[in-house]
Design brief:
The chain is an alpha/beta fold and 389 residues long. It is built from 14 helices and 15 strands.
Length: 389
């Protein structure tokens, strides 16, 4: 895919796309531009499309398993891209990261107990905790200007003995932080001290902008690895979310047994044949495509910054280190949350993700998806500037 490949606009309407068709159905607006849910408006790498095509041409779509080659491709990718050497027996195949989070909540906590999260954060965390009859315990991130940090002092000061699990978003969605080894070590120390299992959701681990580096939480120490459950997937990196599939990596046999016991009540353990074919091809052949994608997202982010400076200077973007999701501060406009939503949807005809969805600290913010052709991003920004400027 030459760089211009990401500039190509592909019409996704009428393909049962959550991003494009659901927004139309919900709002009744035909011309709505959706830059909300975290999937890309880019086709997957050519080798992935070819692998899915080959699997489709076989014509028999019966029950499937994950072949050894699938796990080998994943292990090789994690070693090559992240310097993480894992054993085959540490890996549990799962249908997706959110199902895995739900299983971890059931495996490592009891009803009525608390689970620590650090908002503003990916909203299915809080939803999954509540859906399982547990209580989210919020340790909000600390905003230092528009850059965010974890609040270790607050966690220590108000630690709740009813908490036995902490869910970490790394890199962090929606604030775009790629946590440094030092930051993760401090969090790890708190988890060890208070006997917390640390669930590290690292689905965005490959989506790190040039100049930053992702640290796998479980690589920091042997002691921390024994407390850590890591969720990874090819779906976010290569835009395969509609196929599903993810991996859970747990090096500690005791934690792994507890997690596996909880999975029995929730999923069958059988694979999606297309998800396996796509992810394996992506891990084996997708590296060049990913490097070009990251450069394109960085350029989209630079375009966003320049546009806001020139046309909407009261809207401030948080620094983007990882993910393809920009976190924008609209508070300088002095609008209420409902006024802002109304203007974006009804006047600009643009759908962003509302900051309030992400919990404490999200008021007055919107999350915008940069994984789209530059022309789509420009059109959305022009509309927003027209409606708010």
């Amino acid at each position: 895919v030459p760089m211009s490949g990401f500039d190509r606009i592909i019409d996704r309407r009428g393909t049962a796309s959550l991003k494009w068709d659901f927004s139309r159905r919900l709002t009744g607006q035909d011309g709505l531009l959706p830059l909300w849910v975290a999937d890309m408006d880019f086709p997957a790498p050519e080798q992935v499309i070819e692998a899915v095509r080959r699997r489709a041409e076989h014509g028999i779509y019966g029950y499937a398993l994950e072949p050894d080659s699938y796990f080998e491709a994943a292990m090789d990718w994690l070693r090559r891209r992240h310097g993480w050497r894992i054993e085959r027996e540490w890996i549990i195949a799962a249908p997706g990261v959110v199902p895995s989070i739900n299983v971890a909540i059931q495996a490592f906590t009891a009803p009525g107990e608390r689970v620590v999260i650090q908002p503003p954060v990916y909203y299915p965390f809080a939803r999954s905790i509540r859906d399982n009859g547990r209580e989210p315990y919020e340790n909000p991130l600390r905003a230092e200007g528009l850059r965010y940090a974890m609040d270790y002092e607050q966690l220590e000061r108000s630690f709740d003995p009813r908490a036995h699990l902490l869910i970490l978003c790394s890199p962090h969605n929606p604030v775009g932080r790629v946590w440094s080894p030092g930051e993760l070590e401090r969090l790890g120390e708190a988890c060890l001290k208070h006997d917390l299992v640390l669930l590290s959701d690292e689905i965005h681990h490959d989506l790190v902008l040039p100049g930053f580096r992702h640290t796998v939480t479980a690589t920091l120490s042997e002691e921390l690895a024994r407390r850590t459950v890591t969720c990874v997937s090819a779906t976010k990196t290569f835009n395969l979310a509609g196929l599903g599939g993810s991996l859970v990596v747990i090096s500690d046999p005791g934690l792994r047994r507890r997690f596996e016991a909880a999975t029995k009540a929730v999923w069958t353990g059988l694979a999606n044949a297309f998800a396996v074919a796509a992810a394996e091809a992506a891990w084996r052949h997708g590296e060049g495509w990913l490097e070009r994608l990251l450069a394109y997202i960085r350029d989209n982010y630079v375009f966003l910054i320049q546009f806001l400076q020139e046309r909407l200077s009261s809207v401030k973007p948080a620094p983007l280190e990882g993910t393809y999701l920009a976190w924008l501060d609209f508070r300088g406009l002095g609008l209420s949350a409902s006024e802002l939503r109304e203007r974006l949807l009804k006047k600009a005809h643009v759908w962003l993700d509302e900051g309030t969805l992400f919990g404490a600290g999200g008021e007055g913010f919107q999350r915008v998806n940069l994984a789209c052709p530059r022309a789509t991003l420009q059109e959305a920004l022009e509309r927003i500037a027209g409606a708010l400027g």
